[in-house]
Q: What sequence folds into this?
């Protein structure tokens, strides 16, 4: 199961990234747990300077934009695949 975090204070773009992420992963059948991080100190701990940001398994994969669903799925599948 993937650990997904959407970083942002709750603006419209943050809510949209959360909705797009949920829809993309559910449609792809990828199991995930999504958490919203709204505290500025917690967001800054990830080194993110612009929100919304997407974190998959504690790795920041995007910040400052809303990703296309296909890109979210692609990043999630890459995170699911163990590296050797």
A:
């Amino acid at each position: 199961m993937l650990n997904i975090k959407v970083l942002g204070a709750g603006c419209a773009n943050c809510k949209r990234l959360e909705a797009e992420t949920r829809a993309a992963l559910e449609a792809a059948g990828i199991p995930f747990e999504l958490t919203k991080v709204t505290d500025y100190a917690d967001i800054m701990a990830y080194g993110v300077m612009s929100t919304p940001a997407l974190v998959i398994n504690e790795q920041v994969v995007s910040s400052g934009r809303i990703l296309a669903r296909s890109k979210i799925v692609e990043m999630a599948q890459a995170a699911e695949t163990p590296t050797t």
User: Anything to note?
Assistant: The chain has a mean pLDDT of 94.
